[in-house]
Specification:
Radius of gyration: 31 Å
Distance between the termini: 91 Å
Structural class: alpha+beta
Number of strands: 22
Largest sheet: 9 strands, antiparallel
Length: 685
Amino acid sequence: MRARLRRALARAPLAPAALAGVAAVLAYAVSVLVFPYHSTNHDEAVYLQQAAMLLEGRLFLQPPVEGAFRPWFFVESARGLYSKYSPPTAAVYALGELVAGSYRYALPAVAGANVALLYGVVREAWDRRTAVTAAVALLASPLFLVQAGVFLPYAPTTMLNLAFALAYFRAERTASTGWAAVAGAAVGLAFFARPYTAVLFAAPFVVHAVWTLRDPLATTFSERTVPSLVARRVATAGLGTAGVAVALGYNAVVTGDPLVFPYQAFAPLDGLGFGYREILGYSQDYTLSLAVRSNAEVVGAFLLDWAPFGALGSLLAGLGVFVTRRRGWPWQQAVLGGVAVSVVVGNLAFWGNRNVLGALPDPSDGLIHTLGPYYHYDLLVPASAFAAVGLLALADRARSTAAARLDGRQAVAVTAALVLVASAVVGASAATATATKLEENAAVTDQYEAAYEPFEPAPPGDAVVFVPDPYGDWLNHPFQALRNDPGFDGDTVYALHDHAAEVATAYPDRDLYRYAYRGTWTPHGGEPVDPVLREVEVASGQSVTATTSFGVPSWAASVTVTVESGDARERYVLDGVATRDEATVSVVVDDGRVTPSGPVTPTRNESLALAGDDVTVEVLVDGGYGAGFTYRVVVPVTAAGGGGYRALTPSQELCTNLRACDESPVYVEGVGPDGSWLNASVTAN
C-alpha cells in the first residue's frame, strides 16, 4: 500500500500544482493590494462592463438617456452600444463572478493556469526539470506579475495559446487526434479573443504542421489512405477554422458585417500595417522606420526590465538559445524559439507598440512604464523556457566542474554554495525588477485612493452620481471603478455631468449627487486630486433663478460675464469693478428666455433664448496682459410639465489657466487663489 502511494505521489504533478498555487496567490494579492481601483489602462473597465453584460445575456447596452452613459471604448449602433473587443476575455472574467462571486477570482485562476500550462509545454519540449525551472522563471517575471493583477486580455489569451501549444505537442507525441482537436479548439478560441495575437503565436506551429504534411499527403493521394498525421491536421485545422467562423459570426451580429471586427467599427483606421493610422482624433503616419524604432524600444524594455528574472533572465535566455543550438534543435524547441521571432517581427505591423511608449524620448512615459510591453506578452513563453535552459546549463557546468576537480564531499559543498549564491543573485534580480514595477503602480493607486475617497466605504444608495469627463464624453475613462449595471438600474447609477438635467428626468425618484475634484487628473505624478461628493437639489417652478456670487480681487482690471445656452451666447460687463471686492449676478429662466440681472451692462442683447439643457455663466476676471482666472457655473435646466422649468444645483468651477480652461477646471470650495471665491444656487419662482 505504501509503495503504491509513493508511486502515485511520484506520478502526481505536485511541482506544477504548487507553482500554480503560488501564482494564484500572488495574482490575487497583486490585484487587491496594488490594483484595488484598477490600473492606468482604462480598458479594464471595458472588459468588466462586457463581463457584466454577458452574465445578463446581453451583447448591447440600451442607455435610458442618449450620450449620458456611453462607456469607454463602446461603439454606438442602431441596436445599442457594444464593446470594441470580442467577448472571450470578458467571458473568462465573468466566470469568476459566476462561480466564486467576484470577478477578481478569475485573475488567480488565469495566472495559475498559465504557470501550469507553461510547465506542460516545456516538459513536452524538454524535460520535467526544465519545466519546473521555466515555471519558476515565469513567476519571477515583472510582466507576468503585473499583468496577473489586472483585467486585461493578454494573460487570458496566452492561457489559450499555451493550451493550444500543449495539446499540439501531446498530439504529436501520442499521435492522438483527440489532442489535435483540443489544439484546434484552443487556437480557434484564441483567435476569437485576439486574432492577431493568436496568429503570431500559432505561426511557427502552422509552419511545422505544413512541413510535416509533405510526405503523408503524397501517400494519401497515391494510396488513398488517411494517415494519422493527416487526421490530426484536419482535426486541428477544422476546429481552428470553426473558431474563426465563430468570430466572423459575432462580427456579423454586432457590426453587421462578418469581415468588420468591432475594433474596426470603432476606429476604421486603427488597424494593422503601415501608413496613416487614427483613433479618436489621434493620428500618425506609422512608417516602417518608426515601427522599427518603436518596437526596438519595446523589446529592449522587455529584455531589460520585464523579462523573467529581469535583465539577468534575458542573459540566461540568450545562453539557453546558444546551448540549445549546440545540442541541436528538436522540433518542439525550434517551434518555441520561432514564437519569439514571430511575436517580435509580427508586432512591427501594429502601431499600438508605438502608442504604448508615449513620448519616445521619455522612458517614464506611456503605459509601458507601469504595465510593461503587454503586446509582447507571449514572449514570456520562449523567454521563460530558454532562461530555464540557460540557468540549468550553468548549474550543470558548475556541478561537473566541481566533481572533476574536487573529491566527493568537497564537490557537494562547493556545488551547494554555488547554488545558494546563484539563487540569491537570480532571486535578487527578479525581486528588484518586480518590486520597482509594483511600487510604481502602487504610487498610482495612492492617487486613485484619494480620488475615490467619497465613495468609501460604499457609494450612495438609490442614487444617481454625475461624474466629470476629463478625457472626453466617456464613462469609466478614467473612473473605472464607477461602472453601471448593464440595465442602468443598479443601486448607484453613474452618468456624465453634461447630461444632468435629462438624467434627473429619467430617474425622478433617486437622490442626485455630483462628483468633482480640485486639481488636475494626473495619477502618473504630481499631487492627488481633492475630491468631493455633493448632493444635488432640484428646483421646479414656472421660472427658476440661478444666483452666482463671486470674489473680485483688487488687481482686476475688468470682469466680463458670459451667459450661454445652446449655441446662443451673450456678454455683459460688470459695473464698477474698481470699487468692488465681490459681486452677485442672477439669471432668470422664464418664458423660454434667459435674462441676467444685477450690476451688469449688456454688450448687445439683454437676454437670450433658452436652448439645450444647460445654462452656463462664465465670469472672466482679467488683470490685463493675459493674467486672470475664470469662474464657471453650469445650471442644468429643462422644461417641466405645465409650462414651468426644473433646474438642478449648479456646478461650480474655477479655472486658473486661461489657456486650458476646458482641461483643468476645479470645483470651488472656500477661498481660492488671490482671494477668489464662488457660490452658486438655484431657486424656483
